[in-house]
Amino acid sequence: MQKNSQNKFLFMLKNKILFPALIAVSLIFSSCLGNNSADLSDDANVISFSLKTGTSETFPTTTFTIDTINLIIYNVDSIKFLTRIDSLVPVIGTNTASSIKINDTITYSTTTLDTLDFSDTVRITVTSQDKKNTKTFKVVLNVHQADPDLYVWDPLEDEIYSENTVQQKLFFFENSLNLFVKTNSGVKLFYSENCDTVWNTKSTTNFPNTFDIKYTVLLDNKLYIAENQQLYTSENGTNWTSETTTGSVNHLLFAMNGQVFGIDNSTLTLKKLNGTIWENVTTLPSKFPVEGAGICVANSTAGNERVYVVGGKDSNGNLLNSVFSSENGSYWANLASKNWFSPREEISVVQYDDVLMLIGGKDTNGVIINDEENKFFIISPDFGISWRAPYDNMSLPLDFVARFALQTAVNDDKTIIYLVGGQTDMEFLKDAWQGMKNSLLWQSLK
Fold first, then answer.
1. Is 160 in contact with 432 (CB distance < 8 Å)?
2. What is the chain's Cα-based Rg?
3. Which residues of 357-367 are buried (b: 16+ CB within 10 A; e: fewer)?
4. Confidence of residue 338 (pLDDT cuts 50, 70, 90)
């Protein structure tokens, strides 16, 4: 009787120990099952994407957009023209995906993946951590199909007008091209509102026919021309008003910083116009050109206006290859530290895309031709300090005739440059061209 009581007690004791243990094991097992299902991520999205090269070359910095609705990975800003995309390594980021496959056959690894050809279709398949969801993203790599640095030159008109010509002067204002043409009978204004092949004409009233019209300047949509003590102004190019000034100049040079500047050739004095009074600014350098220089007011690296007076003739009649420059008219520097180009006059100087362009001119032998020695067309990428031949993708068309006194203008948003008229040794030219750098055109279309 006593033995049976002991056995019963031992059985109950074992049950009290065994049952809690079984319950604990059961809870642990259930917990593990939960981690393999409900607690695993169902996200099959790509959350980051970039590219690197398989060599030492640096791939252009590109930001990719990941469209999780349409399942496309793409770059909004196109990659530079002619960039190679046939040997690139993707860097793919996900939320703990169980697997990433490329084109269904390649298992993605951050350490062993070979380069891929992104000029062909590349697909990235992501399987979620719980293996319940799968998404396949298509990678679209946008590369410029045209050279963004290419200059496209197009002829607008072979002959704008038929009159015999004495001088020409071109301006871009009131959103149109305006070409003043001086003939033996007076000055006419030819204009193209759409800057294309349609040119109309207007007669000018009270324009000083005896003045040298190449020294006309534009300031805040108002035109100025002056000689001696006579000043003429116009707000539309057709109707001109004359005034007598205190003091005199031989002709105007440029307009900058809200002021009009002229020159007294006999004393090499630069003057600025204050109302109808010519005020002395400074005595110019002894070799400063008094006629025939190419003059351009452009933006400096700091964004300030700066004037460039290039080539021309000094007071002794010597041809120059100097590049005089000033930000205020008071202080001048000759930036030409060496003979970047041959001495010449009747040059055209214009700024386009932060590059100074020098086109044409003539020397003692006549029209400058486009050869290695004389350089008909050269550029300065550093604001007049150095000059060189343009790259091939900037070159003027082969049928653009070498000339001097070429007329140039740039439209208001600085995307198009216009080349109009000029002279050869034989005749006045009456054609019109436009040039556009691809990248500037694309920017204007955004």
1. yes
2. 37
3. bbbbbbbeeeb
4. confident
Burial group, residue 385, by CB count within 10 angstroms (0-12, 13-18, 19+): middle
How far apart CA 338 and CA 349 sit, in angstroms, is 18
Most confident of 30-44, 180-194, 431-445: 180-194
Instruction: Give every CB contact of residue 33 below 8 A, 6+ residues apart in sequence.
Output: none
Tell me how far apart the alpha carbons of residues 213 and 225 are, in angstroms, rounded to a whole number.
7
Give the torsion sign (CA, 195, 200, 202, 208): positive
User: Beta-carbon neighbour count of residue 413 at 10 Å?
Assistant: 9
Question: Phi/psi at 16 (nearest 5 deg)?
Answer: -65, -30
- CATH 2.120.10.80 placement within the chain: 151-445
0.85 exceeded by pTM: no
Q: Which fold has domain 46-140?
A: Immunoglobulin-like (2.60.40)
Work out the number of other CB atoms within 10 angstroms of the CB of residue 330: 10
Stretch(es) of the chain classified as CATH 2.60.40.2340: 46-140
The amino acid sitting at 281 is V
Range of 46-55, 106-115, 143-152, 189-198 with top mean pLDDT: 189-198
40-69 tens-digit pLDDT: 899 999 999 998 887 656 677 788 999 999
Q: From CA 233, how far away is CA 239, in angstroms rounded? A: 8
Domain 151-445, CATH number (from 3.20.20.190, 3.40.50.2000, 2.40.50.140, 2.120.10.80) = 2.120.10.80
